[in-house]
Design goal:
The strands form ten sheets. Strands 1-3-5-6-8 form a five-stranded parallel sheet, with no helix packed on it. Strands 23-22-26-24-25 form a five-stranded mixed sheet, with no helix packed on it. The protein is 3% helix and 41% strand. The protein has three helices and 36 strands. Strand 24 and strand 25 form a beta hairpin. The chain starts with 15 loop residues before the first strand and ends in a 6-residue tail after the last strand. With 516 residues, it is mainly β.
Length: 516
């Protein structure tokens, strides 16, 4: 006897509750049986007249005979789906107003609901009702419901679908087709006690299909639920980065949506970069509900092709340069063949409109461009001999040399002078002065040389010129003996002939005659 027990705590180490364990605990109002318990013995809670709340173990496999006899204040009880059998008179004279027997229960003992005068809602499976009609029929209430376990099968364009349609205790029909389908309609049918078909097409109320209310005692045979399905359609929207709708279509469930419009674009507010379409977010997958996809973009630098060609249009180098970047030429130095009168030195590039020197550098790039080389012309220096004066005996020999370019600075290029291959000593044997370049060979030096023709070579830093000069013979100084008659003497000096032999230059002859 446990008449004074008010509260019980059962540890989770307990696996079973023995026979009459809490028999006649009249003051025990509630009890929670841990999930470690798998069995409860007969009469375990018999006569618990104050018991109002019981939580059963989720691993309980059976409810023994007479377990809750005369528990008059026990208004409801949740039987876990682990229970497969309920013994005779298990709920005799309990105060239940409603109770659901799960489909897992396969066995019912006699008189399970006997004396449950307040029971207004009893929910049992169709199979259990058909197997134990006499046990269930002891409850004389018209509101007792049967959970319908009817198999539905339908063919659709997507294939055959089958499953179970069940009530949830409120006559609400739930069907679970493949996720790609939605319920089109549900037809409920059953035979009445006369064997006539009772058929009703169910339409959704607040999105739910509700079974019709019939007295189950007047039904015969199996109840049937026929569900028709159709492929669901969901709205799929594609938007640009500014949330502007680009495309909206209804797509059948299970299908892969596709975007068929123009490739999305995004305007750049800076000329140095642009936006390139980079797919959708989220990633496109098969449709399972309404979905919005937003265009994604990546920022990319604006680049232009820059080409360097030679004068013949042959490409020397090419590549892309970012907007605002300055190209760098790293190829071989462009060349231009020299002409008879000039040589050419690479001096920069031109784009056809402007010239960019090597010192000034190339411009910032804002468009595709082709550069061709620019050359500086350098005229080849040509030296010529102008006037030649003097005989080398009575006067210095003066040679006037000219330069075809930069003649006024000809002296700046002068290096040396030789006569007959021997270098003359500047200032001692000759002088070189400006205007253009004047070479003066001193007569004192020339008087040491033999009379006749000599070759003078004048060398500059970028060229040379040769010419021939003629040194005159010295005068005859012999005097006749005393008493000898003196004839008229004629002294004819040798003519000083200076030949300027550069590039076909003419000769200048100087002749001096002396007669008695």
């Amino acid at each position: 006897m446990c008449s004074n027990i008010i509260e019980v705590s059962i540890p989770n180490t307990v696996t079973s509750i023995g026979k009459a364990a809490f028999d006649r605990c009249a003051k025990l109002a509630s009890i929670s049986i841990p999930d470690s318990v798998t069995s409860i013995g007969e009469y375990a809670f018999e006569g618990n007249s104050s018991l109002m709340s019981v939580k059963l173990s989720n691993n309980l496999t059976s409810i023994a005979a007479n377990t809750f006899v005369n528990c008059s204040k026990l208004k409801s009880l949740t039987i876990p789906e682990s229970v497969t059998s309920i013994g005779r008179y298990a709920f005799y004279c309990c105060g239940f107003t409603s109770i659901i027997i799960p489909e897992s229960v396969q066995t019912l003992g006699d008189g399970v609901f006997s004396g449950c005068s307040n029971l207004t809602t009893l929910i049992v499976s169709q199979e259990l009702y058909e197997n134990y009609p006499n046990v269930i029929n002891t409850v004389e209430q018209k509101s007792i419901q049967v959970t319908y376990d009817a198999t539905y099968t339908t063919s659709t364009s997507g294939g055959s679908i089958s499953g179970d349609a069940k009530t949830n205790g409120t006559n609400e029909i739930t069907v679970k087709p493949d996720e790609n389908y939605v319920v089109d309609k549900i037809v409920f049918s059953v035979k009445d006690k006369n064997g006539a078909d009772v058929i009703q097409t169910l339409t959704p109320t607040n999105g739910k299909y509700i079974m019709p209310t019939y007295d189950f005692k007047n039904w015969t045979g199996d109840c049937k639920v026929t569900a028709s399905f159709k492929l669901a359609e969901y709205t799929v929207v594609f938007k640009d980065s500014d949330d502007k709708e680009l495309q909206s279509t209804n797509v059948t469930a299970g299908s892969m949506p596709s975007y068929t419009g123009a490739i999305p674009t995004r305007k750049s507010d800076n000329p140095s970069y642009y936006y390139e379409f980079n797919g959708w977010a989220p990633a496109i997958t098969k449709v399972t509900g309404p979905q919005t996809y937003t265009a994604q973009f990546i920022k990319k630098d604006v680049e232009f092709k820059v080409t360097f060609n030679d004068l013949d249009g042959i490409e020397l180098q090419s590549g892309n340069v970012k907007y605002g970047g300055v190209p760098v030429y790293s190829g071989k130095t462009p060349e231009k063949a020299e002409s008879e009168t000039s040589t050419f030195v690479f001096d920069g590039w031109t784009d056809g409109a402007n010239i960019y020197t090597l010192t000034g550098g190339l411009p910032e790039i804002t468009a595709a461009v082709t550069f061709t080389p620019v050359f500086k012309e350098i005229i080849k220096p040509v030296y010529t001999v102008g006037e030649v004066k003097g005989d080398g005996i009575n006067s210095d020999i003066v040679i006037d040399v000219h330069r075809n370019v930069d003649d006024e600075n000809c002296i700046d290029y002068f290096s040396s002078a030789t006569i007959d291959g021997t270098e003359m000593k500047v200032n001692d044997q000759y002088t070189a002065t400006k205007g253009s370049t004047i070479i003066t060979i001193k007569k004192d030096y020339l008087s040491t040389m033999t009379a006749g023709e000599h070759e003078v070579k004048i060398t500059f830093s970028d060229g040379s010129i040769s010419t021939k000069v003629t040194v005159a013979a010295k005068a005859n100084t012999n005097v006749p003996a005393t008493g000898e008659s003196t004839a008229v003497s004629t002294y004819t000096g040798l003519a000083l002939i200076v030949a300027a032999c550069v590039c076909g230059a003419g000769f200048v002859y100087l002749k001096k005659r002396k007669e008695a």
